[in-house]
């Protein structure tokens, strides 16, 4: 009489089972890492797009300032007259649009403009108006404002225990 035995698992079967489980875990890790990298890349692309948008609007502002200073020169104005003209036409010079907010002011012979994008990229520009009614860039700095444009992103949804 033969005894019936259960299923026998040999060393090769056991090794194969462990290898399949390890590959399944690695596949899940690869998938989650790929999703995280995609999300990060999309955020970076959005931030770069907005930084370039602020730079583009800043360049357009320089073009508008140049046109106003050319008008002042054509009208025969001196430096103080040109500064008054720039002050009067400030909203024309410091553009707003494309989801970018601007703040502009004239202090002495310097035009200060700040542009803020929806995601928090900020461009600060200080332009000096010279005696010959040309201009010089004294400051051109792009920074990131913290807490602007975030819709309450959840960084961790697990429990704290």
**How large, in whole angstroms, is the Cα Rg?**
31 Å
**Count of helix runs:** 3
CATH architecture of the domain at 37-144: 2-Layer Sandwich
Numbering strands along the chain, what is their spatial order in the largest sheet? 1-2-3-4
User: What's the β-strand tally?
Assistant: 4
Q: What do the pLDDT scores average to?
A: 87
Please bin the fraction of helical residues.
Answer: 40-55%
Distance between the termini: 58 Å
- Describe the global form: rod-shaped
Computed structural class: alpha+beta
Distinctive features:
161 residues, alpha+beta, four-stranded antiparallel β-sheet, 48% helix, 20% strand
Commentary on this structure:
With about 160 residues, this protein is of the alpha+beta class. The chain has a domain at about 35-145: Pantoate--beta-alanine Ligase, Chain: A,domain 2. The protein contains three helices and four strands. The protein has helices at about 10-75, 80-90, 90-95, and strands spanning about 100-105, 110-115, 120-130, 135-145. It has a four-stranded antiparallel β-sheet, covered by helices on one side. The longest helix is centred in the N-terminal third of the chain and has 64 residues, at about 10-75. The radius of gyration is 31 Å and the shape is rod-shaped. The two termini are about 60 Å apart. The mean pLDDT is about 85.
